[in-house]
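Pinned message: reference record for Transmembrane and coiled-coil domain-containing protein 4-like
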Amino acid sequence: MEISLLSSTQKYAASALFALALHHSQLHQTRPTTRLLSLEEEPIGEGASNSSTISVSDFPHLWIHDNSGLLLPVFRFMEVEDQAWEGLKETAGVSTQARHHVGSFMTLLSETNDEVSSGIREKELALLKAVDATMLSMESSLVLSEDSDKNCDYETHCRQRCAYPDTTTATDPNGRIPRTAPNISNNEDVDGSGFRFFEKPIEEGKLLSEERKLTVLYELLSSCVADYVTDGGSKGYDARHRVALRLLATWLNVKWTKMEAMEIIVACNLIVRLKNEDAEQFGKIKNDKWKQAGIIGASALTGGSLVALTGAAGAGLAGSRTVIRIEDLDEFEFIQTGLYHNQGRLAVGILISGIAFEEEDFLRPWENYNDNLERYVLKWESKNLIALNAGITEWITSKVASNLLQGGAMLTVLSTLLAEEPLPAALLAASDLIDSAWAIAVDRSDKAGKLLAELLISGLQGHRPVTLIGFSLGARVILKCLQCLAETQGDNAGLVERVILLGAPIPIKDEKWEDARKVFLIAFKL
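Predicted structure (tokens):
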């Protein structure tokens, strides 16, 4: 969008809303265990207090501070006058009356000017139609593939393989275990992303038309991915920007899938611009230089932010599929999965298995996982994980284990291994089968987490927000990655947007959970 469809006042209001969302999302990130009131629940008027304010200049850790490099490029792109910047930052940093400010700025956005040309209205409607068309395309691609029965068979096989032998499980007429949806209330999942998000739409958002809401979000999104350079280099699409947009979309009652559709539109526009304006120079850039930089090499040649994209010519995570050997790590490679590679996705998902009986167990659990991310499966130390599970299986099927656990399962053994109490005598006697393999697997998971952190810092994913999902030892890989990001010098808080840990073999004590929590935005643990 080379020419803004918003007036100067509307751009000012949109920038202020973004600043408020950026700061408010930080509250959720720094206090993840606290049930914060949504803005719609906060009192306004006589019931609110104006006594608690801050000076942004006194707190350089705030995301709205100049030190973060997150807000001023947005103001610059939105053409907010320089003299208004400080006031907007101070307003965003006010710890009370945020609800009042959000409502006021939404009211400003809703105001119409009789002098607004019909051409602008037509362009807003055109954007609305483009978003709707993109959403239809996205929804059609999320329909279960013809291999859905095959995926169900695999899930049933896995459950039976790890289940209690003496336990009967209900199956459908074809012998498959029926699926159950996760129990997440609608009040906690208002953005349509499948993640718990304790926010609600703001009443004043009803004053805005749908096309005006999308125009505001589209221009703010464009400002977030626009190419800009700071002392630390080009930043790309920061995860904190994406979370702020997620929160603002919730306040405006815009489903997140529409934001994802606009991300695709922005990315495709940048790709077309690259091909049209720089095709000759683009062809001369070599892949090895892209891999060294960890970004799309032609981004410096255009006014757009192709630093936010990856994979257009084999660069990025897919370009590192050869086996990596580092220290004692024998295997570490990314495998593409899903439908959205080289299709303009501005966010990446990395999926990590932690239990494997055979090679296919690294990829198959994720084949039926549907979202709008560009997804990669991390295959790591397959021989060691398979050896570990083979040892556990051998012990479980032994007569001693059967008598001890009365048909116990692998998860019981793993939980016993992780317990702080001494191992039962019978288990201790048989533990030689698995103790060595377990120690090796834990050690390799820690090293894999460190390597993953190093690759994310290098920008191999294209400087796009990353979602990390892992189960069992795969979840441990993620925790170690986050801890390494927290310990490494530099601003690494904008790399990881969301984290899901499933069945993580990680003790509550003696782990740096607080440090890890500082470098990602949204948590989801089961």
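Pinned by admin. Summary line: The chain has 18 helices and eight strands.
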